[in-house]
Each structure stands twice: as C-alpha cells, then as structure tokens.
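User: I'm curious whether this sequence folds into something compact or stays loose and floppy. Could you predict its structure so I can see for myself?
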Amino acid sequence: YQDAMIAPSAYDVVSLAQDARVRIPPALEAELVARYLAGRPGLDTARWREAYHIVGAQRATRIAGVFRRLNDRDGKPHYLGYIPHVIDALRRNLTATPALAPLAGWFAEHSGIMDAQ
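Assistant: Here's the prediction. I'll summarize afterward.
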C-alpha cells in the first residue's frame, strides 16, 4: 500500500499507532488518532475510523503470518514474541466495527488461530 500510494488514508496512521514491534498504549493510540483527525477538518470521521479498523485487521493478519513465516522458513524465532501483541491488535480491530463481524466470526470458527504463537 504505502509504496503504491493508493492505500486508505488510515493505513499510515494504523502503521504508526498499532506498531507490530512496539507496544503503543491504548491511550496513546487514541491520542494519535485524535490528533490526526483534528488536522483533517471536514473528514467523515465515522467512515475513517471504520477504515482504520478494517485496515488494522488486514495489517495485523498479514504481519502475524509474516512473523510466523520468518520463524518457520528463515529460522528467526524472535519474531514469534511479537505475535501475541499483533493478535491483540487484530482482536481490538475485529471488535471495533460491525463491518468486521463476519471476519471475527471466521476467526472464532477456526479455533486456535487467535491463540497461535
């Protein structure tokens, strides 16, 4: 997304506020989002927040898979330590908007995925 410059505007904010390797406290995440939105008067904040959580869920899912691959294929087990943090972000995004309810249901049906390390 970033290099193609065709991502939703929420993508870069998610990348910063939901960093995969650094735990960002929820209060700081909320402050970063609020500051971004304050700088975008006229933006449909409800639609933007929904996009934020959709992109956040997509990003967390992709990163969890990449970190698992880095362990399994490349012999880099330290990435496994980040997976619980990434899965936590995924959970938060899945429950933040009704638009993600079908995906949350899919994850719930496939027991073990959300607990994967």
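Summary: Residues 45-72 form the longest helix (28 residues). The mean pLDDT is 92.
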